[in-house]
User: Which sequence fits this backbone?
């Protein structure tokens, strides 16, 4: 084997279209029970402030500690939609697996089970719960979950994606 930079071997042509993070899979390759995790993330006041700015949700329960306490919360509450955003498929490797067969994100639902506060660490995951073939396409149903650092389930929901089938 030639040493890098010695010029003894011709370099292979680089094809950006063939550059993949993980091997591509099809609808038929997916299995019920597969889990696609996102990296854990500790939320900070900066995250909450950025989301408040982007969402324009300026309710004081999200940034005023005294208001939050007066209304029964131990600290300002992280926006629910911000917590939900951590279940985005792109936060996991899932889109890298199905990138070429992905058609659409069809729907989502969720239930907020526990409050999330600055300093909490979230552990999001998508688990395939159903694979529904439909003609030349298929629907992938996933359970979307987020646990906190105490092992508490803070969000439970469902996503549905439309994928092209291979056969």
Assistant:
């Amino acid at each position: 084997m030639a040493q890098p930079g010695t010029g003894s071997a011709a370099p292979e042509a680089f094809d950006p279209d063939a550059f993949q993070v993980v091997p591509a899979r099809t609808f038929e390759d997916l299995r019920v029970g597969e889990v696609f995790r996102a990296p854990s993330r500790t939320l900070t006041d900066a995250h909450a402030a950025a989301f408040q700015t982007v969402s324009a949700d300026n309710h004081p329960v999200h940034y005023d500690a005294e208001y939050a306490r007066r209304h029964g919360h131990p600290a300002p509450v992280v926006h629910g939609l911000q917590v939900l955003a951590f279940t985005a498929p792109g936060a996991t490797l899932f889109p890298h697996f199905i990138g070429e067969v992905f058609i659409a994100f069809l729907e989502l639902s969720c239930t907020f089970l526990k409050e999330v506060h600055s300093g909490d660490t979230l552990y999001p995951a998508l688990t395939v719960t159903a694979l529904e073939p439909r003609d030349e396409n298929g629907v992938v149903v996933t359970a979307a979950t987020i646990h906190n650092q105490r092992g508490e389930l803070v969000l439970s929901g469902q996503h549905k994606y439309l994928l092209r089938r291979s056969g």
Q: What stands out?
A: The two ends are 41 Å apart (CA to CA). The first helix runs from residue 45 to 55. Residues 134 and 165 are 9 Å apart (CA to CA). The chain has a mean pLDDT of 91.
